[in-house]
């Protein structure tokens, strides 16, 4: 049987492969191979303590890094493994995890280095280090999937997307989106190696419509592009991206056309290195992208800490560095423009010619209004082998110039495209990370959640990003218990999306609170968790909100004393005290007048329908269906305009949600309920009948479907009426906004002040309460609103809509007394 090669032999082969340009290995394969080699060193080399092991790792790390200095992934993985060894050693030395406070930036900069002695021998050190490295390998395996699963947040149907060259990360990102969306991809060929051709072939094999263009055609085609998605080789510490040739040109064209740019990269591509030059002054061009030299300096590893030791920056002869393309701002540092070049300053350690296809440029952000958006910072642990739930988070990074909520932004406004709404191009790039821990292992401080310059929404609050964060936590925790991947996927669907979002938002707040208090979140004790709940109570949270927080903490923290958090007597007593100190009070009077709104719908600009604008017709249709059906916004969004889900008969209209829709309560009763809306009034009847006909849902729906048929791009009943997504299905937030806008418009037309805190969900309570006032049988009310019992209506929705009529008695008495009327 052939003997397995020794670690030194495997490293020699890997070094030779790196010297030849890495062969066909991508960055993920290089990262995994580097960690695998370092794991072999830890397992098979002879060492007695942490100092000896780190010296071996440093020696081999220098050798692998020197083989290909431009491949920063190798150095990043070496630094990560060194950090694992130091933290495992510190833990075995008895370092306290909960009392190890996060160091300030000033302390990190002024510290003289670690003074800890790593010469002590600990028998469990090898086992702990090997286990932590195995967890790192598991983390690396899921990086591509974690990035790809966020594709649907950024890519929408019928969009035109541009990319450049070949990037496996971008390829997986686009292929994941193609499973649910149909879009067109334009690939710049990336001369001189023309890797874009290979990218186009890969995308076309999975059914993505692809077009290959030359690099010279980028600017001409950019006006048709909705967004740009590119990959990167390295993200440097000064904000520079080392990417394929042509990326800078692509970014300039995107900036000129206000097209958003998304850069997809895993966390292991974050490098502590800085790319500088002595002879080329770095100057900002108009679009605030700073040009930096095209090669990464060769850097060594500190003999003690395993961090980057700065070498002399590389200088390259560039006779035209003072010139900027496109007539943009010029560098103040002029140089000779002759054919010759200066020899001075050329380093003997310059990277091989094979890496010249990569260029670097920096995304210069306006930090006054921008923020580094990432997961809450973690307190320093005494060991690097964190729970797998934490490990699964540090896997992906996206640099995006557009931090917007696509579910509602620009849906009903006439905009050119996705990039023209609140987008500032690359100048307002936001960093969205899967974790706050950098590759080097130093925790980054939690940044303030401010909007980037010109953007509308916070990237950190994007539902998709937050949900991915939470699913990674739960998936890792369940995997650690031994459940298979299919079983975990099924278990993760046990909660609705809204519930999962509430839970993970609570957990992220709890993580930030634990970090400030120096507590490990997954090891928080019961008193500490009650302190967190008390903090929420002091800030004004209601009992229901605290119950949600309790359930969220129980979900992610796990059981305490073998019980869920809510079932522990101390927690139950705490919540009981909250209910007495701050009892929940439900409003019993309607916040807006239904009669006033319905009266406005019978007058201009909502009547006559033939003269009604598309926006007013949409608002009227949505409101009438909502108030007449007493259904939730999610059900309104699920209605279809196609038969048999929409049927018109002589005396009624029947609406049914599409079969794929899941109601809030998934049961046979709730899934089989149709909406029946009667025909009202008559065009030839009395004046009251004619007024009533203006509120006839059948008449309004027929007109709405006829008007929207020309631009309809979705089978959903309610469509967006403006913007580049005109004709597509309106989202639930958009429908809610339309209902509130309809109520506000009615008050403004009547010359009255618009009530505060309008809610679209209030139409359910209004409709059911007025039906009860009109003596509709309780069982009919419950059936129409899909309540299984009258208890839900009486406890949560019943309103006193007769409060004004109850004042008639006192009014008549006082009037009669004043006028001296006799009975």
Explain briefly what this protein structure is.
Residues 377-386 have a biased composition (Basic residues). The chain has 823 residues and is α/β, with parallel strands linked by helices.
Helices and strands in order:
Blueprint: H1 7-19, H2 27-44, H3 50-67, H4 72-92, H5 105-110, H6 125-141, H7 143-148, H8 151-154, E1 160-164, H9 168-178, E2 184-188, H10 195-205, E3 209-213, H11 218-221, E4 227-231, E5 234-235, E6 240-244, H12 247-256, E7 261-265, E8 289-291, E9 300-301, E10 308-309, E11 358-363, E12 372-373, H13 388-391, E13 397-400, E14 430-433, H14 463-480, H15 485-492, H16 497-517, H17 526-538, H18 543-557, H19 569-581, H20 594-601, H21 614-629, H22 633-638, E15 646-648, E16 652-655, H23 668-671, E17 675-678, H24 687-693, H25 697-708, H26 732-749, H27 762-773, H28 778-784, H29 790-797, H30 808-819
Parallel strand pairs: 1-2, 1-4, 2-3, 4-7, 12-14
Antiparallel strand pairs: 5-6, 6-11, 7-13, 8-11, 9-10, 13-14, 15-16, 16-17
Helix pairs in contact: 1-2, 1-3, 2-4, 2-6, 3-4, 4-6, 14-15, 14-16, 16-18, 17-18, 20-26, 21-25, 21-26, 21-27
């Amino acid at each position: 049987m052939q003997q397995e090669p020794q670690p030194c032999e495997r490293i020699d082969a890997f070094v030779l492969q790196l010297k030849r340009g890495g062969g066909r290995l991508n960055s993920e394969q290089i990262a995994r191979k580097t960690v695998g080699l370092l794991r072999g060193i830890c397992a098979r080399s002879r060492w007695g303590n942490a100092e000896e092991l780190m010296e071996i790792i440093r020696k081999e790390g220098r050798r692998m890094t020197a083989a290909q200095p431009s491949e920063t992934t190798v150095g990043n993985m070496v630094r990560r493994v060194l950090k694992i060894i130091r933290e495992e050693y510190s833990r075995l030395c008895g370092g306290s995890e909960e009392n190890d406070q996060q160091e300030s930036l000033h302390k990190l900069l002024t510290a003289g280095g670690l003074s800890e002695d790593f010469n002590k021998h600990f028998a469990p050190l090898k086992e702990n280090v090997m286990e932590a490295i195995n967890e790192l390998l598991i983390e690396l395996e899921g990086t591509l999937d974690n990035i790809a699963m966020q594709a649907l947040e950024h890519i929408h149907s019928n969009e035109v997307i541009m990319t450049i060259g070949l990037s496996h990360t971008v390829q997986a990102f686009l292929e994941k989106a193609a499973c649910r969306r149909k879009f067109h991809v334009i690939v710049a060929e990336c001369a001189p190696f023309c890797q874009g051709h290979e990218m186009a072939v890969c995308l076309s094999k999975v059914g993505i419509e692809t077009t290959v263009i030359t690099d010279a055609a980028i600017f001409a085609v950019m006006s048709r592009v909705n967004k740009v998605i590119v990959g990167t080789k390295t993200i440097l510490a000064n904000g520079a991206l080392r990417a394929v040739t042509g990326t800078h040109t692509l970014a300039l064209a995107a900036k000129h056309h206000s097209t958003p740019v998304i850069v997809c990269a895993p966390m292991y591509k974050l490098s502590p290195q800085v790319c500088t030059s002595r002879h080329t002054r770095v100057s900002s061009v108009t679009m605030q992208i700073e040009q930096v030299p095209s090669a990464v300096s060769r850097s060594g590893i500190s003999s003690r800490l395993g961090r980057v030791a700065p070498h002399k920056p590389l200088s390259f002869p560039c006779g035209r560095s003072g010139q900027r393309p496109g007539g943009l701002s010029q560098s103040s540092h002029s140089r000779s423009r002759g054919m010759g070049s200066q020899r001075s300053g050329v380093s003997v350690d310059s990277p091989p010619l094979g890496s010249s296809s990569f260029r670097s440029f920096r995304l210069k952000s306006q930090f006054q209004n921008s923020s580094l958006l990432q997961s809450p910072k973690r307190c320093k642990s005494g060991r690097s082998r964190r729970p797998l739930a934490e490990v699964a988070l540090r896997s992906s990074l996206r640099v995006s110039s557009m931090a917007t909520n696509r579910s509602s932004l620009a849906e009903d406004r006439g905009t050119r495209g996705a990039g023209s709404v609140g987008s500032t191009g690359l100048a307002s790039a936001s960093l969205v990370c899967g974790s706050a821990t950098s590759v080097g292992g130093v925790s980054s401080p939690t940044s303030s959640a401010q909007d980037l310059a010109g953007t509308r929404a916070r990237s950190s609050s994007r539902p998709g990003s937050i949900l991915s964060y939470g699913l990674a936590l739960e998936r890792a925790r369940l995997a650690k218990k031994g459940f298979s991947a299919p079983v975990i996927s099924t278990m993760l669907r046990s909660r609705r999306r809204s519930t999962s979002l509430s839970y993970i938002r609570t957990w992220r707040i709890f993580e930030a609170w634990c970090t400030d208090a120096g507590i490990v979140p997954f090891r928080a004790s019961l008193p500490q968790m009650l302190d967190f709940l008390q903090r929420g109570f002091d800030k004004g949270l209601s009992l229901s909100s605290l119950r949600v927080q309790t359930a969220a903490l129980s979900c992610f923290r796990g059981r305490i004393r073998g019980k869920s958090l809510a079932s522990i007597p101390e927690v139950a007593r705490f919540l009981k005290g909250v209910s007495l100190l701050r009892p929940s009070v439900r409003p019993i009077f309607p916040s807006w007048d239904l009669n006033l709104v319905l009266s406005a719908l019978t007058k201009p600009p909502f009547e006559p329908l033939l003269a009604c604008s598309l926006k007013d017709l949409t608002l009227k249709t949505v409101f009438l269906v909502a108030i007449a059906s007493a259904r939730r916004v999610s059900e309104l969004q699920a209605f279809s305009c196609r038969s048999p889900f929409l049927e018109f008969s002589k005396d009624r209209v029947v609406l049914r949600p599409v079969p794929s829709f899941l109601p809030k309560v998934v049961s046979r009763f709730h899934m089989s309920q149709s909406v029946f809306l009667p025909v009202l009034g008559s065009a030839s009847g009395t004046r009251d009948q004619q007024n009533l006909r203006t509120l006839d849902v059948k008449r309004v729906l027929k007109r709405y479907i006829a008007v929207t048929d020309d631009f309809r791009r979705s089978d959903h009943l309610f469509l967006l009426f403006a913007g580049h997504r005109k004709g597509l299905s309106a989202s639930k937030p958009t429908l809610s906004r339309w209902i509130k806008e309809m109520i506000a418009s009615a008050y403004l037309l009547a010359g009255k002040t618009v009530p505060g805190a309008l809610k679209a969900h209030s139409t359910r309570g209004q409709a059911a309460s007025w039906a009860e006032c009109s003596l509709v049988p309780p069982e009919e009310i419950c059936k129409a609103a899909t309540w299984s019992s009258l208890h839900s209506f009486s406890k949560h929705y019943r309103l006193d809509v007769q409060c004004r009529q109850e004042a008639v008695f006192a009014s008549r008495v006082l009037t009669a007394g004043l006028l001296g009327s006799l009975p």
